[in-house]
Amino acid sequence: MRDPVRRAMEICPIEVGVAVAGGDWKMTTVSKLAPGPLRFGELQREVGPVSAKTLTRQLRALETDGVVIRTVYAEVPPRVTYELTEAGMALADIADQLGSWGKKYVGDPADSELRSG
Amino acid sequence: MRDPVRRAMEICPIEVGVAVAGGDWKMTTVSKLAPGPLRFGELQREVGPVSAKTLTRQLRALETDGVVIRTVYAEVPPRVTYELTEAGMALADIADQLGSWGKKYVGDPADSELRSG
DNA sequence: CTGCATCCATTAGGATACTG
DNA sequence: CAGTATCCTAATGGATGCAG
C-alpha cells in the first residue's frame, strides 16, 4: 500500500478514496476500464492527452492499491492489459457519477444560477 | 472559473469533476458542509489536520467554482460561514459515496482477496 | 476569529529521447 | 508495443508570523 493511502487511513475514509483515486487521469482511467480489459496503447488513446509516463505511473499506483490488475503477455510485440478488480469496479461507478456531475456542471443552462446559490 | 477546470472541460466530464473536487481535503470539506453551514474554525476542526492556509485556499477554489458560498458577517470578532450550493450538495453525495468506498476498502476483511483479483 | 504573506520541501505531470 | 530515464516547470501543502 502506498504511503499517501496509509496516511489517509489515519484521517477519514473520504481522504482514503481521494488518496487512491485522486490525481489527474485516475478516475477517467478507471472509468474507461469498466467495460473490460484494455491494452496500454488503447487505454492511452481512450483516456485522452495523457503522457505515457504519467499514465504508467497512475496505473502502477492503481495496481499497488488493488484497483487494477496488470497482465503481461510474453509475446512479440509486447502486450500488456489492464483490468479492474472488484474494488476498481466499485470505484468506476463513482467515477461515472463524478462524470455525470461534471457534465451537468458544464452544460446545465441553469448553471449560473446554480453556482451563485 | 479556474483554469484547471476550464482545461478539463476540453477533455472529459470526469476530469472536470476531478479539477473541481480533487486535491486533499476538498471532498471531505464538502461532505462536512452537507448538514448545514459552518464557520471557518468549526470547519477546520471537523475536516481534520488541515492547515488554515490550505483550507482557506481550497474554500476559495470551491467558492470560485460555485460549490460553496462564503458569507462574511460584519462583527467583532469576525465571523465567516460556508455553505453548499446546489452543485455542492450534489458533490457531497459523491463525496459520501467515495467515503463508503474508502471505508470498505480499508475495513473489508476480504480486502486482500478483493485487491488481488 | 479569520486568513494573508512568506518561505520551504515535496510532488505531479509533461517533453523528449531511448530500450527490450 | 510498452514502457524507462532524464530533465524541467508548476502546483501543492505545511509552518510560521503578522494583520484587520
TrEMBL record, chains A, B:
Gene: hxlR
Keyword Transcription regulation assigned: yes
PANTHER family: TRANSCRIPTIONAL REGULATOR, MARR FAMILY
Cross-referenced InterPro entries: ArsR-like_HTH, HTH_HxlR, WH-like_DNA-bd_sf, WH_DNA-bd_sf
Domain HTH hxlR-type: 12-110
Domain of life: Bacteria
Protein name listed in UniProt: HxlR family transcriptional regulator
CDD domains named among the record's database cross-references: HTH_ARSR
Gene3D superfamilies: Winged helix-like DNA-binding domain superfamily/Winged helix DNA-binding domain
Protein's UniProt keywords contain Mitochondrion: no
Entry keyword set: DNA-binding, Transcription, Transcription regulation
GO molecular function: DNA binding
